[in-house]
Design goal:
Helix content is 34%, strand content 19%. The protein has 490 residues and is of the alpha/beta class. The chain has a seven-stranded mixed β-sheet. It has a five-stranded parallel β-sheet with strand order 9-2-1-13-19, with helices on one face. A three-stranded antiparallel β-sheet has the order 10-11-12, with no helix packed on it. The N and C termini lie close together (7 Å). Bound molecules: flavin-adenine dinucleotide. The site of flavin-adenine dinucleotide (FAD) has 37 residues, from α1, β14 and α16. Flavin-adenine dinucleotide binds next to α1, β14 and α16.
């Protein structure tokens, strides 16, 4: 094993994870990242004393991170300090706000207040969700999903039947609660999977278990602390991390890759794992004869949304604001239609606000607020410009004023935006998606782009476009699974 070489393309969660698992087994690993830092979608930037996480902000499934770092001899607490948020988040509706509490007893009490008798059904829903979480994370998620046969063992099939694969999440939630606010709270977690609850299998109520039972956490210093910790571990294991290395081509001979060309040089290798966007790797780094999937295949994939993001530093505090707020005070169905069906700019968007400075003094100067706004948008919007971005920011300011009584536009010290155009430019993202492919039934497990190339025998993929799917914990896991596939063949 000692003299085998692997090149990992991309230094986000998936690339760092793959590189570390390989280096841990004595493989010589070089990781090539096009930006000047690792982190990918979870990079950070600082301006005027504010430090902004650029992408993920919800720390869910703490057990996955604990497992990851323990595989390399660490506990999470050796590397960063986690805080459990309480309330987990606030949800704003037209006329009222619901704070979703961290404690289970308080949560049941909240559901009873809105719908008498619902807490008993909620308990049953959680019991089932826990089974799904344990089966899903325990047995299914670590499968490479290269073939349906991996799932064809009797005991696994029996377990799969418990997973509600064919029922929609919307139907499942409707059996638990009738009240529209409670329904939205239970449907919200699957939005992370890139589609509405109507199109996501009820299997993913495991996300509710992650949300409401395992809790919402925050690493002090910001989400990028996870990346810093992963980078430290990778370097200690001997991974050679090279930044500012824009990979341009993968050279192959008779169905085998042997060299990676970047903006700065070339790297001979025995294996490659690409954690750069899968479609980009296929279409831009490989000749046509080496691609597993056609342009038609990629064009017909159902993508998770893109996002219009604002990083805003305020010269004042907003006292009533909590760390995470969901603004569901607009018509959810209309916005979903504009994202997935009509592909229009939203008329009256729902949006999400993260204010890490409510928990963490280090991310904003004293007396100031660090805000990150996200509006989900279609992956087919081409008319993106500063005027449109300003228009949506004005809408956000108005809605904020309605809820908090403060015109934030008068308090701005930092204002930066990021949208579909930047997702394509910065991450080579297919259609400018923010978080990969939607986890619909026909794009789950072995129906996802495979993590092993069908054409190039020593080329593997990791990251949010392959198994198990989008999100920080799945990306971490995909790096591990891809590394294990290589280790099996060495
Ligand atoms: C705005 C936003 C909010 C999100 N919120 C959450 C959240 O709250 N919680 C959660 O769990 N998940 C969240 N996600 C999803 C999560 O961030 C992603 O699923 C995850 O970060 C993907 O990691 P990755 O390693 O697959 O991809 P990436 O992070 O995109 O890493 C791929 C890397 O490849 C590099 N690369 C690309 N092309 C090349 C090339 N040619 N040469 C060299 N390098 C290249 C890129 O620069 C990048 O560093 C969010 C995503 C976004 C965008």
């Amino acid at each position: 094993m000692d003299n085998k070489k692997v090149v990992v393309i991309g230094g986000g969660f998936a690339g760092l994870s793959a590189a570390s698992y390989l280096a841990n087994e004595g493989i010589e690993v070089t990781l090539l990242e096009k930006h000047d830092t690792v982190g990918g979608r979870a990079r950070k930037f600082s301006k005027n004393g504010f430090t902004f996480d650029m992408g993920p902000s919800w720390y869910w499934m703490p057990d996955v991170f604990e497992q990851y770092f323990s595989d390399f001899g660490y506990q999470v607490s050796d590397l960063y300090q986690l805080e459990r948020l309480d309330p987990s988040y606030d949800v704003f509706f037209k006329k009222e706000k619901i704070s979703v509490p961290a404690s289970e007893a308080d949560l049941f009490e909240l559901f009873e207040r809105y719908e008498s008798g619902s807490s008993l059904r909620l308990k049953k829903f959680f019991d089932e969700a826990e089974i799904k979480y344990k089966i899903g994370l325990g047995e299914f998620v670590s499968k490479p999903s290269l073939s349906i046969l991996e799932f064809a063992q009797f005991d696994l099939l029996k377990k799969a039947l418990k997973l509600d694969i064919f029922k929609s999440m919307r139907k499942h939630v409707a059996e638990v609660v009738k009240h529209p606010y409670l329904r939205l709270i239970l449907e919200f977690p699957v939005l992370f999977l890139g589609q509405t609850a109507a199109n996501i299998p009820a299997l993913y109520s495991l996300m509710n278990y992650a949300d409401l039972k395992l809790g919402t956490w925050y690493p002090m210093g910001g989400m990028n602390k996870i990346i810093e910790a992963m980078e430290k571990v990778a370097i200690e294991l001997g991974v050679n991390i090279e930044t500012n290395q824009n990979v341009l081509h993968i050279r192959t001979h008779k169905g085998k890759a042997y060299e990676v060309y970047s903006s700065q040089g070339s790297f001979k290798t025995d294996y490659i794992i690409s954690s750069a966007d899968y479609a980009f790797t296929e279409k831009n780094l490989l000749f046509e004869s080496d691609r597993s999937y056609s342009d038609n295949y990629w064009n017909s994939r159902k993508m998770a949304p893109s996002s219009l993001l604002y990083y805003v530093g305020l010269n004042t505090k907003i006292d009533k604001l909590k760390h995470h707020s969901l603004f569901f005070d607009s018509n959810f169905e209309n916005h979903a239609k504009e994202i997935y069906t009509t592909h229009k700019w939203p008329t009256d968007p729902l949006f999400y606000l993260c204010a890490p400075s409510r928990t963490d003094k280090s991310v904003a100067p004293p007396g100031k607020e660090n805000l990150f706004f996200l509006i989900p948008t279609s992956v087919e919007l081409n008319d993106d410009n500063e005027i449109i971005r300003k228009k949506y920011f004005e809408m956000i300011c108005k809605r904020m004023e309605g809820h908090f009584g403060i015109d934030i536009s008068k308090h701005i010290e930092v204002y930066e935006t990021f949208s579909r155009k930047e997702f394509m430019q910065e991450y080579n993202s297919l259609k400018g998606n923010a978080y990969g492919l939607a986890n619909t039934l026909d794009q789950t497990a072995f129906l996802k782009p495979k993590l092993k190339s069908k054409k190039v025998e020593n080329l593997y993929f990791a990251g949010q476009l392959t198994t198990p799917g989008p999100g920080v914990p799945p990306s971490l896991i995909s790096g591990k699974v891809a590394a294990e596939q290589i280790l099996k063949t060495i």
